[in-house]
Amino acid sequence: MAVFICPRCAHRVAGAERAEGHQPRGCPSCGFGFVFELMDDYYAGPLTALVCCDRDRRVLVAGHATTTLTGWAEGDLIGREVAEALGLSFPGSPDDPIARAIEWGVRVLAEPCAFRPLGLDADREAVADIFPAYDDDGGLLIALTPATKG
Ligand SMILES: [Zn+2]
Question: Distance from the CA of 44 to the center of ligand 1, in angstroms?
């Protein structure tokens, strides 16, 4: 059963609700204009930044926790290539996990990464979960969770 997640508030909606006509117009919790379809359920933590991109990896929505985590205001991220905008890198990966998710249409889960918060001189370690969109627009959702120390 499909699950939808709101990129703005991280509210999750089960696919059954969509069949009943309550979806996919928008988020029933915060009223945001669209929800992102996931193949399987996913829980975004309170510090997990949710960023939606188009098929060219340009930021469409810098939603839930993004400003808290990265320091960037949404308006400064929209339209920019996501990895460049967030200083996102995947030092341990043999390929580009974002490209892998887009080209193969697969989820990439718990991929270690680093990003550069606004105003800092050092990268911060995080874990990325990357979800391809299943609609014709072919974008993706990136969930960035800060790595826990220790
Ligand atoms: Zn919402």
Answer: 12
Q: 127 - beta bridge partners?
A: 112, 145
Whole-angstrom distance, CA of residue 128 vs CA of residue 126:
7
Written as tens digits, the pLDDT of the chain (150 aa) is: 778 999 999 999 887 655 555 446 789 899 999 899 998 889 999 999 999 999 999 999 999 999 999 999 999 999 999 999 999 999 999 999 999 999 999 999 999 999 999 999 999 999 999 999 987 778 999 999 999 764
Q: Please report the domains of the chain, with CATH numbers, ordered by start residue.
A: 1-43 (no CATH), 44-150 (3.30.450.20)
Distance 28 CA to ligand 1 centre (A): 7
The pTM assigned to this predicted structure is 0.92
128, 113 Cβ separation under 8 angstroms: yes
State in Å: Cα 13 to ligand 1 middle.
10
